[in-house]
Amino acid sequence: MQAELEDRFQEFVRARWSHLVRTAYLLTGDAHHAEDLTQTALAKAYRSWRRVSRSDNPDAYVRRMLVTCNRDRFRKRRVTEALTAAPPERAGRDEAVARVDERRALLAALAQLPKRQRAVVVLRYWEDLSEAEVAETLGCSPGTVKSQASKGLAKLRTYPGLTRVMDGPAYSGAHSGEGSRT
User: Fold this and answer.
1) How far apart are CA 72 and CA 32, in angstroms?
2) What are the phi and psi torsion angles at 166 (to 5°)?
3) Which residues are in the RNA polymerase sigma-70 region domain (predicted)?
4) 90-130 pLDDT tens trace
């Protein structure tokens, strides 16, 4: 039985790793913190995998752990962070290289948002979660999600580098490559 649970956990990690790291990167603005954050959340998920795997939505359960771990890292030690304006480039990925300017503008704009607004914008428009799902993930009311999303999007619209990218033909919404509920 334990071996079967472990196999299911490993399958989950293989299938969701890159998506979770990408979400963590948008929350933290740092590739190394994103990987650390994802590993921490998955370690917690592993310890309670029996309960996580029985939930209606293991993805949502682990995503909530990811957001909570991100919030906890600021509670445990007060460290000033300087978010990077440019994501690391990856060799051999033509699409990634072609969208470097878009990513830089988006990440720089996200880095300017307060943590709560950034989390709401990332979960609502990158993860494509409903307002209720974002509220549940962040442990706040749907009204808070609406107001934080509105304020966050208003700030993003005023960011000069992002405005230029959003007007360009290659930009497809709040994030590249995935559907959005905008």
Assistant:
1) 17
2) -65, -25
3) 19-78
4) 555 555 554 677 777 788 888 889 999 999 999 998 888 99
